[in-house]
Design a protein that fits this description.
By secondary structure, this protein is an all-alpha fold. The protein has 17 helices and no strands. The protein has a domain at about 25-105: Serine Threonine Protein Phosphatase 5, Tetratricopeptide repeat (Alpha Horseshoe), CATH 1.25.40. Helix 8 packs antiparallel against helix 9 (about 155-170), helix 8 (about 140-155) runs parallel beside helix 10 and helix 14 packs antiparallel against helix 15. About 70% of the residues lie in helices and about 0% in strands.
């Protein structure tokens, strides 16, 4: 039998599932019925992203509006489409054009911040979100996105302040509640106070995830994250309940199975842990992850 893995190696078997998703402020739909079809397609938020870029480009090339604010809307709409397609250089160029046409609009600054955040350029993202908040201090989206950037940077208290401000503006803004819960969960892992407060941050995060689930009950990632917190507090039955519900919602996610397997292992329910690891292995393509699952199975005396 292979050598026993270190506890740190074992704990790699439990993993986070989701991060709070940054939110893009979309160009408002409002084209008149008699507007050219390309303009309607460009400004319609339901238009597929590739089709939107083509339609907006056609308007810009063939018949751009004379009014600066309308031109800004078109650049902003196309920029968001490029952003969603992951074409960041073109997205940023369009947001720059939108800001040049309408310097007082907050949306392009928020979307520019999202582009930098997705590329892990956190300081540049925060600078853009700062400008978006300055232009529109009552916008919960920019506040939440800046909170996400602060959280990724490890500035958890600043992140919590932004999430609180967003929730005060929009009490049902689920993304802000998720960000707040994730920040508290991160604080439980990284903050020295967590060691002297006996699970205080875990408990606070569990409460926040509960608020998210009130607004979004079928959120597998939130259930998994809360399950991890219950696991940390050794409330294994509650952890299993959350992991099981998450798996029912998203049965094709191997991370959920791995998380439940580790909790079963801590409960010494080895047959159930082995079954979950084998099911996770069947769903896993990544070579390193497959190797880890194989090692965990071997530690339990099971073959692949």
């Amino acid at each position: 039998m292979r050598a026993t893995l270190s506890m740190e190696r074992v704990m790699r078997g439990i993993a986070g599932v989701v991060l709070a998703a940054v939110t893009v402020i979309m160009a408002p739909s409002g084209a008149q019925a008699q507007a050219p079809s390309e303009l309607r397609i460009c400004l319609d938020n339901a238009t597929p992203h590739a089709q939107k870029t083509a339609a907006c480009s056609s308007v810009i090339t063939n018949g751009p509006p004379a009014e600066a604010r309308e031109l800004a809307r078109i650049y902003f709409s196309r920029g968001n489409a490029y952003l969603n397609l992951g074409v960041y250089d073109r997205a940023l160029a369009d947001f720059d054009a939108a800001t040049k046409a309408n310097p007082t609009a907050s949306g392009p600054f928020n979307s520019r911040g999202v582009a930098f955040l997705r590329q892990k350029q956190l300081d540049r993202a925060i600078t853009e979100f700062d400008q978006a908040v300055r232009l529109n201090p009552s916008d919960p989206i920019a506040l939440t996105n800046r909170g996400d950037a602060y959280r990724d940077k490890g500035r958890l208290d600043s992140a919590l302040q932004d999430y609180d401000a967003a929730i005060a503006i929009s009490p049902k803004w689920v993304t802000a509640y998720f960000g707040r819960a994730a920040a508290l969960q991160q604080k439980a892992i990284s903050d020295f106070d967590a060691f002297v407060n006996e699970g205080r941050f875990e408990a606070l995060a569990i409460t926040e995830y509960g608020k998210v689930l009130q607004l979004s009950p079928r959120n597998a990632g939130v259930l998994s994250n809360r399950g991890q917190l219950y696991h940390t507090l050794r409330k294994y039955d509650l952890a299993i309940a959350d992991f099981t519900q998450a798996i029912e919602i998203n049965p094709a996610n191997p991370i959920l199975l791995r998380n439940r397997a580790l909790t079963y292992r801590m409960m010494r329910r080895f047959d159930l842990a082995i079954a979950d690891y084998r099911n996770a292995l069947a769903l896993t393509q990544d070579a390193d992850a497959r190797k880890l699952i194989g090692e965990l199975l071997a530690q339990l005396g099971a073959d692949v």
